[in-house]
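I have been asked to look over a protein record a colleague put together. Alongside the sequence sits a line of tokens, each denoting a local backbone shape. Please read both lines and tell me whether the tokens look consistent with the sequence. Take the sequence as given and treat only the tokens as open to question. I have pasted the whole thing underneath without changing anything:
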Amino acid sequence: MANNPGARKAVRKIVRRTEVNKSRRSRVRTFLRKFDEAIASGDLTEAKTAFVAAESELMRAVSKGVVHRNTGSRKVSRLAARLRKVATA
């Protein structure tokens, strides 16, 4: 348990940041799900717009520190590969 004022304040800050990060992570997952649904439907134009939105949201999460830079890049790369696979098929 936090015993001094600085530690108590740190706990309060952590609680606030956790809520913000949780909502950002949830937002990223939503955009990834929309991309998955667009790929599953087979609509290429919808998949491309969903990819752009998902990439943007992932990179925003990276810039905010919610997701590590390499993780964000890896996820974007895998999304792009899936998009290319659908585009060629």
